[in-house]
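pasting for the record
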Amino acid sequence: MSRKKGRAPRRAGSTAPRPPVGGAPAATPATPATRPQAPASTPPRITFSSSPARPASRRPGQLTLGADPGIPISQVPYFIPDLKKVAITGVAMLALLLLGSRLIPLVIR
């Protein structure tokens, strides 16, 4: 089985700065602490959001009084048939547990 060759470990003396990629060498800034400033006529930052902005007074965990937070059962599709399937599956599981608890000791003897 062949082994993958990983990166070679860095040596202590090989931390020299690399020359810039391109034609002419880049000029180094006179003071390293200065940052380039954006022009004053820069447009405001645009956020990409499809939802409308929320009012500042509404908190995420707060419910508005008078509004029903629940979904009406009549508007939930297939709720009653799915509930019947879950009930049938639960009854079948209990029946298999009871049958297995009675039948397995008889078979093991």
